[in-house]
UniProtKB/TrEMBL annotation, chains A, B:
GO terms for molecular function: DNA binding. Residues 49-68 bind DNA. Pfam families: TetR_N. Residues 1-23 are annotated as: Disordered. It comes from Sphingopyxis fribergensis. PANTHER family: ACREF/ENVCD OPERON REPRESSOR-RELATED, ACREF_ENVCD OPERON REPRESSOR-RELATED. Residues 14-23 have a biased composition (Basic and acidic residues). This is TetR family transcriptional regulator. InterPro entries: Homeodomain-like_sf (IPR009057), HTH-type_Tx_Regulator (IPR050624), HTH_TetR (IPR001647), Tet_transcr_reg_TetR-rel_C_sf (IPR036271). Keywords: DNA-binding. Residues 26-86 form the HTH tetR-type domain.
Length: 210, 210
């Protein structure tokens, strides 16, 4: 995973480097971000508080201010952290796939599993639309960029249709996000492998009769 | 379009029928909902105010309370109103389609056009996730239900693959919403017909090489 945010402006508008330099510091930072995911996920941005985050993290209030200046700042870092956690969850699975279409199936399957274990991701990413639009947009743009890159590589190798590209990547991202909401978030009982298989077969072959 | 909300509970918990009985009343109600779309779309739920809605609508404050008891109540009615406007925009276009796959292309094309003209729809529907989750969920469930109904009818007639159903409908809804965000909302210059064509070709034929 990339390091969490490196430098932000503080009140005096000079830039303060907040990247932790020790393993202990990195552990504290992760504890704060994991606690923030629970706090923002349960209470939403407006109700969430810095003191509740440090309480959940089991850290002193001072530790918070070592890494963040404000609730806005940890929220922004959290969106990036969740986006990176998701990438790190899905990418190795996709890289093991035998072919380009299986890669998208395994990617969706892995995403649905991630949603089941991190149900707060929808509320957090979606609230970013209102709290921090740039982070919201960046999350989707970087996610789609990874899909587009996979598709264009596979098209170049002749594994899939030669015109696969950006529009297809946005279509796949939208499919995945909606299937995650319906079958990962709302429906505990759904068989996520069967959902991924059905969606992948649509992606592979389209709607035409065989 | 369906009538806007018919009955809600007021403070005394008895139910008050607020359906307008005259053409003039229906016109006032629509003016309030159109003004609410602009107000909530520009300022968001928390900053929006009832007095600004009536000012934008050019109606007296009293008219508001003829139809709604609160800001929450007009927001809920607005989500439903936008959902129905979208349905009424897309449905006749889809019904004119020569076949099931063209129906999805025309549906997406018509949706992208609607987004261009009603950019506030994303902010309003998405804010419902935080302000009124039941309305948020109902919007997607009824939208997907229409797609599923189209697909299952076409499958029964033998026009498309026989297993087309719910998972495919959620996948298509997700595709459309994300393509609408990327090419309808964020990118004024995108050729929406070309986007709809590319996405529909994916939907028709999948990713496999021809």
């Amino acid at each position: 995973m990339d390091q969490p945010p490196v430098a932000t402006e503080n009140a005096g508008s000079e830039v303060r480097d907040k990247t932790p330099r020790t393993e202990r510091g990195r552990r504290t930072l992760r504890k704060l971000l994991d606690a923030a995911a629970v706090e923002f996920g349960e209470r939403g941005f407006h109700e969430a508080s810095i003191s509740a985050i440090t309480r959940r993290a089991g850290t002193a209030l001072g530790s918070f201010y070592t890494y963040f200046d404000s609730k806005d700042e940890i929220f922004q870092a959290l969106v990036r952290y969740m986006s990176e956690q998701l990438r790190d969850h899905v990418t190795p699975v996709v890289q093991e796939a035998p072919d380009a279409i299986a890669a998208e199936r395994l990617g969706l399957q892995s995403y649905l599993g991630f949603v089941r274990e991190h149900k707060e991701i929808y509320r957090i990413i979606d609230e970013a639309e209102f709290v921090d639009y740039a982070s919201y947009r960046r999350h989707y743009e970087t996610t789609v960029e990874r899909i587009r890159h996979r598709l264009e590589g596979a098209a170049k190798r002749g594994d899939i249709r030669p015109d696969a590209g950006e529009v297809h990547a946005w279509a796949i991202a939208g499919m995945n996000v909606f299937l995650g909401m319906r079958y990962g978030l709302w429906d505990e009982a759904a068989d996520v492998d069967a959902v991924a298989q059905a969606a992948n077969d649509l992606l592979a072959n389209g709607l035409k009769r065989n």
